[in-house]
Amino acid sequence: MTDTRPWLVTGAGGMLARDVLARLAVTGIPAVAVARADLDITAPEAVRAALTAHRPAVVVNCAAWTAVDDAESREAEALRVNGDGARHLAEACAADGTVLLQVSTDYVFPGDADTPYAEDAPTGPRGAYGRTKLAGERAVLAALPETGYVVRTAWLYGAGGGNFVRTMIRLEGVKDTLDVVDDQRGQPTWTADLADRLVRLGLGALAGTAPAGVYHGTSSGETTWYGFTRAIFELLGADPARVRPTTSEAFVRPAPRPAYSVLGHDRWATAGIEPIRDWHVALTEAFPEIHRAQTKEDPA
Fold this sequence. Notes:
- This protein is α/β, with parallel strands linked by helices.
- The chain has a domain of 206 residues: Rossmann fold (3-Layer(aba) Sandwich).
- It is 42% helix and 15% strand.
- The N and C termini lie far apart (53 Å).
């Protein structure tokens, strides 16, 4: 029997949540979208009230403190959202037997590997953001051993918000050359692709075909920010030679960036779901929509 209960999507104003909601609509699944103004996940009583009111089959937690650099000086505030907020959702879901999909990050790893991080690889965040997200992961897995899912992602881009692809489209129009770091490796991931896997994972959870635990929701393949930018320039019809490689030392930031953010995807097989496709194939498909969105906001 098909579960007709709605799915609750937090952080509904964000780039990923918008694509999750779009995917749910295409799939015919009713959804309740709650932005930060609608639900403060740091308030446990508000979380419990939301789940009582909507009785969701699945909660997709896209609400997060994502200001990586700010977290270094405001870790307690970031922890309230990324750690305590996830715990409040998990505890409320546990009371009702609700599935929770918790979106997490590559920053839970130290970034010093040279082969893809497996889902069960030891964690070791180097910064505040990663520590707060890891706290959220642990809270979900502890409270929901049978119905809690952690999906780590990285290098997200999409049409529905500010991101690296849109920034590079803008800068290509105003800069003769761009210096981009070539010593950080990762997997550019289209939010639409991740949204599709989140929905499929949630459906697998409800059907009993997807084991609870950790999954890695990033594109296949790998590149550097420099390689990523060259691909963007090529799709713009611009000369990729205008992109010049540099090192992380040229862009010192408050929070340390992982040098290696490549994640392995083996666990999807246990759920009968294929991993996300190659990053370059996805970028090529995503690019026209992202370019239209950026051009609309910045016609100059």
